[in-house]
Amino acid sequence: MSVFETVTAERAKIGPVFDWVTLADGTRQRVDYTPYPTPEQLGVLLNAVAWAHRAEGWGLSAKPSGNSVPAPDGTRIAADILHNRNDNVIVDCLIAAGERSEPTWNVIGPMTDPSRPWVAPTAPEGTPVDPPVDPPDPPPSQPCVFQPCTHTEVLDVLADLHERLVALEAKIEALSAHDPPWVLRGTIDLWGAKRPVVGTVGGQS
């Protein structure tokens, strides 16, 4: 559906604009319907059209003074203008806005008035709202790897560690005092040549 077709459809929701009647002499005459749309209805109409085509850049035209109507959020807007943000073009979409308010499509051109900025449309009343997304479930809790213990159990563990440490120190001391001593062999790079090296560790002094 084009933007103009949307304007026509939204205008029809308010009521018919006009009709043709046949007079006694056989001629046809246009008859405009009344009552005319209220300012609030015009604001709803323009906002609904801009919202339906918001992906194409359509919005409303702010008009803080002069002939204006309230948008659904209370912003004062032009009574007959749609504003495309992508190319900054404004279009007159209603003839005699506030009276018969007949749909039309008259491209005016670029908006050059800085006091008349583009206004984003808001979701019309009754627009379905996406249901809230539930947060993901938390990961399952992991059992604690630390088990409670008593003071006595802690002392027993420390005593066992102490005994193992004493035994280890005794083994190290015995190895250091071993006779004959431990012999270490290796090589060093001396003046570009590999030279064997022999050393000892431990033994009686």
Helix content: 25-40%
- Name the helix and strand elements from N-terminus to C-terminus, one letter apiece: HEEHEEEEEEHEE
Number of helices: 3
General shape = rod-shaped
Cα distance spanning the termini = 105 Å
Low-confidence residue ranges = none
List the SSEs and their pairings.
Blueprint (H helix, E strand, L loop, with lengths): L2 H12 L3 E5 L5 E5 L6 H14 L5 E5 L5 E3 L5 E9 L4 E7 L6 E9 L7 E2 L31 H26 L5 E9 L2 E9 L4
Antiparallel strand pairs: 1-2, 3-5, 3-8, 4-5, 5-6, 6-7, 9-10
Give a nutshell description of this structure.
The chain has 205 residues and is an alpha+beta fold. It has two domains: 3-119, no CATH class; 153-201, no CATH class.
Structure commentary:
With 205 residues, the chain is an alpha+beta fold. It has 2 domains: 3-119, no CATH class; 153-201, no CATH class. The chain has 3 helices and 10 strands, in the order αββαββββββαββ. It has helices spanning 3-14, 39-52, 151-176, and strands at 18-22, 28-32, 58-62, 68-70, 76-84, 89-95, 102-110, 118-119, 182-190, 193-201. Strands 3, 4, 5, 6, 7 and 8 form a 6-stranded antiparallel sheet that branches. A two-stranded antiparallel sheet has the order 1-2. The chain has a two-stranded antiparallel sheet with strand order 9-10. The protein starts with a helix and ends with a strand.
